[in-house]
Amino acid sequence: MDRVPVLEEPLKKLLGPATAKVMAEHLDLHTVGDLLHHYPRRYAERGELTALSDLPLDEHVTVVAQVATARILKFNNGRGQRLEVTITDGSGQLQLVFFGRGIHKPHKDLLPGTRAMFAGKVSAFNRKLQLAHPAYELLRGDSSEAVDSWAGALIPIYPATAKLESWKIAKAVDAVLPSAKEAVDPLPRSLRDGRGLVTLPEALLKIHRPHGKGDIAEAKDRLKWDEAFVLQVALARRRYAETQLPAVARRPQPGGLLDAFDAKLPFTLTEGQEKVSKEIFDDLATEHPMHRLLQGEVGSGKTMVALRAMLAVVDAGGQAAMLAPTEVLAQQHHRSVTEMMGELAEGGMLGGTEHATKVVLLTGSMGAAGRRQALLDLATGEAGIVIGTHALIEDKVQFHDLGLVVVDEQHRFGVEQRDALRSKGKQPPHLLVMTATPIPRTVAMTVFGDLETSVLDQLPAGRSPIATHVVPAADKPHFLARAWERVREEVENGHQAYVVCPRIGDDLDDKASAKKKSAEDEAEKRPPLAVVEVAEQLAAGPLAGLKVEILHGRMAPDDKDAVMRRFAAGEVDVLVATTVIEVGVNVPNATAMVIMDADRFGVSQLHQLRGRVGRGSAPGLCLLVTEMPEASPARGRLSAVASTLDGFELSRIDLEQRREGDVLGQAQSGVRSSLRVLAVIEDEEVIAEAREEAVTLVSKDPELAHYPELRTALDALVDKEREQYLEKG
């Protein structure tokens, strides 16, 4: 029987069942290798104290600090007592509190002048940050035990939890660290030597027990390369495998549907649209499946590019399917596509022209008769284009000859859903993925690395600029009154407005949405503003006399569609909505948007929402209402949105301000979980170079026959979830 590699040994063998159980449950660490790859978050220096000034509320932290004062206070008429300890780092202070019987040991240990590590969850009391009942580990001078335990000058601080403090993790790492020398090195020696990188065993030793900052830098350089390179090899192999799959080449016929459509366009395509269309048509003409990501600013004309690609496929005898994330958006796409095509969308009907095809809509809430007809049109090939929600993926849906799948707002779809639709073709169909969320180049290379990327960065003629302003409702309430006056002025000038709220306003609302991570203001004590209440207040107050309606995700599909139709027709002055309008909703007459509690939305989401106005010839106005104080990070975020209309710049800000996992999203959680040292924004150069190296290596040896260590690392890194992501693309 083969011996289990040391790094795959279960932790309970080295640490005992109790510690291993806590590690598995709270940190998802199961093997020696898992623990060795659980790197310190940062390092505290013996001669330096940790900054206490910017601790995050509600998060579990570890700090190294010195006790300034400690006193016992009585309360409840002397029946209760608590120990209050103030710790300092020289620039800031933090209070620790211990209650009841738990005060005796800390009272004895935590004398003024004592230095220790403290771990606990940051909470607020009387508007001051504190740790209640923190765990602590004393740092006793330079005793040999302390020096051995904390590796000389630098103390590693590990990502920890309430059940597992950083110093307990450090002791567990000590127990498994000798196994690091058995680590299989995935980087080919030539690559390692060429870039002056240390070996993997050396990097693991240096990241966990550095003897100086140089050790940490060397270890991180090496470990970043591991993460970038192994991921890029996985993606390069995926792209290589795609080139080996057969697909039907789809070339539009001269004088066919596409030419007829282009001839009736009332405008010329932008240079960007022409360039991206050529890239797509070149891909469609090959005999392996296109795999392309089309990213473009809000309103850059992605739908037009996608529609022309679909028409080219219909011309070539195939069918095209467009998958939208919501019914509102599917209906909107269906409406705009049939309007753009006119009589060309009336195939088989009176009034349809010679080249016309049928464009059908398929959503979960359609009536039985309409659904039956749509399914029949798809199966017979009568319908060249279908637009729908995930209802398109169901087993009952059969295509005559599916040639192209267009996925709108890809980040909202799981890989399995995308794959299920692709499996409906006789041969793998071509795939075009669209997103209006600008993606920095590095994220595109990391998360969408199996897709070729096209970027639309020009706005079509006729689009108007959007002015964005922050409205500080708490500091200057008259600014909010002025905001409603501006909405009235827009309506009086014949235009319409959106008011966006974070929540719907019934008991079904997600309670989590009311949680705030900031102690910056009393504002976070109230729940987020809700569509239902705000609409009532506006209709009875500042917008009295205007036609105000609501739109949110829990309305019946027919009701949602009816509201959107009335708004599009100009029968509604002000639409109070949730983010259901975030993507794809196109009403050129809407010129103003007021976003309530704007600090509760992410940067990219605010940019998406703002893109709903200024879609016609009149300039757009977007007002970001917040009660957050001026110096708060939330206000900084809103000021960034107000300062630029460049979505790519904003996506960088977004990624820098938020944890990368939030941006990479659930569908890519496999990628996310593998990136521990690599930062997709800062390490752009490493990612780009790793991609180049990976492409070269895979083109010569796609099976990695000459790189068994790399193959092993790939198998270990590609967990089940990620395997699906990579295998299905």
Automatic annotation (TrEMBL):
Listed GO MF terms:
helicase activity
UniProt superkingdom: Bacteria
**Its Enzyme Commission number?**
5.6.2.4
Question: InterPro entries from the xrefs?
Answer: ATP-dep_DNA_helicase_RecG (IPR004609), DEAD/DEAH_box_helicase_dom (IPR011545), Helicase_ATP-bd (IPR014001), Helicase_C-like (IPR001650), NA-bd_OB-fold (IPR012340), P-loop_NTPase (IPR027417), RecG/Mfd (IPR047112), RecG_dom3_C (IPR045562)
Gene3D superfamilies from the entry?
A: Nucleic acid-binding proteins, P-loop containing nucleotide triphosphate hydrolases
Residue intervals of the Helicase C-terminal domain: 479-656
Function comment: Plays a critical role in recombination and DNA repair. Helps process Holliday junction intermediates to mature products by catalyzing branch migration. Has replication fork regression activity, unwinds stalled or blocked replication forks to make a HJ that can be resolved. Has a DNA unwinding activity characteristic of a DNA helicase with 3'-5' polarity.
Protein's recorded name: ATP-dependent DNA helicase RecG
Q: Which organism is it from?
A: Streptomyces polyasparticus
